[in-house]
Every structure is written in C-alpha cells, then in structure tokens.
Amino acid sequence: MDTEAGLGSLPHSPATERPVPEAEAGLVRSWQAGGGQLVELLAQVRQEVGGVAAFRLGPNPTVLVTDPDAVQHVLARHPDRYVKRSHRARLLVGDGVLSATGEAWKRQRRLLQSQFTGTGMRRYERRITEAARTAAERWESYARTGQTFDVGEEMRRFALDAIWRSLTGHALDDGTERELEAVSAVGAALPTLPADVTDAEAAVAADLARIDAVARRAIEAARRGTAGPDGPGLLHVLVDAAGERPEYTDRLIRDELVTLLAAGHETTATTLTWLHLLLDRHPAAREQALDAGEEGSAERREAVRALVHEALRLYPSAWLLPRHAAEDDLLAGYTVEAGTDVLVCPYLTHRDPELWPDPEHFDPRRFTAPGGRPGHPGAYFPFGIGPRACLGLQFALQESTVLLEHLLPVHTPVLAATPTKARFGLTVRPDGPVPATLTPPRN
Fold first, then answer.
1. pTM for the complete prediction?
2. What is the mean pLDDT of residues 53-72?
C-alpha cells in the first residue's frame, strides 16, 4: 500500500508499489488547505484515478470505491472483511441497530427485520396513509389562504408523523413534534462537534435531554399497554422483547427508538424536499407521472415511485458509506491491507456517466423504461446493499409514494427561492430553506 500523501491506483502487490505522482499529491494538499467539501475531493479522486482509488486523507490509508463490482464486493459479498466501526451518529442513537456491531447487531437486526417486510409493512400502511392525509389537509389550507410555507419543514413534519404513528400507534401532537426537533438539531450538529466525546456530549446536552424525555414517556406508555386507534406500534415490539431478552434494557429500547426516529424521518424528508426542487426545475416529469394512469392505478404508482428513485439516484439517503478493512484482501485486482479506511460513495456511483448516460439530468424514465437503468446491483444503492442495507427501504418508498399520490394531483408548489448548493453531512441536504406557496388545485 502506498503510504505517501496523494493519489494513486492501488498496487497489485507490494512488489509493484510505485510513488504517487506529485501533481496528484498536490491535489489533496490543495483541498486540505482550501477547506473544500469532502465530496469535491472524492469526485476529483475518482475522475483522475478511477472507481477504486487510494489516497491519504488522515492517519490511515484510504480507498475510495465507486466501481459497481467493487461496491458489491465490499458491501454485499464480504461485509466480514469490510466492517463498520463507531458510527458518527452514536452520540445520538447510542447502541441502536444503526451503530451496533458484531453479535449485538445481528440480534437487533433479526428482531427488527420482520417489521419492515411483508406482513410487518402492511401493519403500517394505514398509519402512513393517515399521516399523508393530515399533510394533504395542511396543504389544502395553504392553498386557500395563500400562506407561505417551507417545503423542507413540511416534508420533515409528514415523515416524523408517519414514523411516530408506526412506532407508538398515535398521531404526532404539536408538543411532541416541538420536542423532537432536538433529533434534527443533534443530527445537523454531529459533523461539527468536538472530537472528544465528553465535549461533544456537553455541546448538545440540552437537546439530548429533550430526546431522552420524549423516549422515556413513550416507553412508559408502551409498557402500560397504551396503544393508539390502530393498535400497538413498533415500540411495543421492543418493549415486549425485554421480557425474553435481557439485553433490551430501557437504554437499548431508547436507542432503538431514537434510531428509528432519526433514520425514519430525516432521510425521507430530505429525499422529498429534493424531489420538489427537481420537479420545480422539470415540471414535465410531474405531468408524465400523473398521466401514466388513473388515480390508484398500478401504472401511476410505478411512475410516482420512479420520481422517488430518480431523486434518490441524484441525492442518495446515505451518500457515503465508511468501512474499515479488518483483514488483507484483494479488491478488483488490487491489494487492500488490513487497517485501510474504505469509503464507498453511492453519490459518485450514481453520477458515473459510464453507468448513467447524462447523469446530472433528472429523468425518472430511467426507472420505468426497459434498459433505462444499469442492471448491476452495485450501480444503484441509495440505501446500501448487503446485510447492512437500510432496514427501512420499503417503509421509506411506501411513505414517499403515498404522500406524493395525495399531493401531486392537487397541488403545484411555487417556490419563492431555491437553494443553489447541497450540504453534505450525515445526509445530503439542500443548503437552505425552500419557501413556497400553492397554486389552485389541478383540474
């Protein structure tokens, strides 16, 4: 492995190691001196070197992976060789399934897996629909009054309501919503918090205390058997597990609850916000989706879901998936040594012109036309692939599609301002608010 600062293709073996060209080494130094975004450096690394590239970002050698075969190798075929270490969100989610590792992660994953597939998902369909109806009623009010609202906040409010109903069986009330703003506040602060854990906790202590208080009340209600009109929610499954599994202490139940809250609404809200921005720039895509079939038809649902998929292609829920090489390995013909940091980047794979023609263009037909998207599973993975792929994939697609089916036929937001940049943190967010008003209903 090349240990010099800079860029270079991974050597096939120690015997073929070669020094990194000086211009490439200068690229990293220039980026560090200028304080540029990490995504800009990774894009240049990929452009200059290719889909498997080595460079020095910190104390450990780092490998960027965007090639589909290499993506599948790391995430799906050999997750035991390329492992997750402490997650950046651990301060918020504790030992929840997002940050858990090893046998603990396997046990937690097994318990939650059935809740997000098949019968489990059907249990939440009514709750998602009720959250969508509530959002649609708010939009009807905005249309009547001409009130300006923020699209991002509306999408966040809907997604939080949908996951809260699914967790607790109750609609999200105004007081709980205000308290749970702390989840977004801590998530947004994570990339800028001090490296020292104690200092980081102190910086967000008040928000963490608010989150803990909401979680404690919800857990106590679930333990009393208090269920909503649609019956018990996913939180009741976690509480019931404590009767047979001693590891499900109140703290672990809290961690799982906050994990599901954070992962279950932030990513969906961000995707839907991007989609509204994209539809504002490409209004024909909205009309094509609505014209694909009658209301409630499978054809229209497929077309609406294609809108979501194309938004996820451009702005994947997890834009960067860090892994750590636990042992020596051969990746795409190159030697990766144990201890290497590996960065799998869906954001760059999804914008590779060799995989996606005209990749910067928003074209949902990629996901409906035959041959419109690459067939390789490592070419499109907005929720990851392999055993650590996001549990909530089907939940996120379901709630996004249901909301759009309620809103798109009736309302067209007129955006008063649009963010010009993306902010790369735990997710890819629009860099600013999205104020809007609503036009009269579609005839």
1. 0.90
2. 88
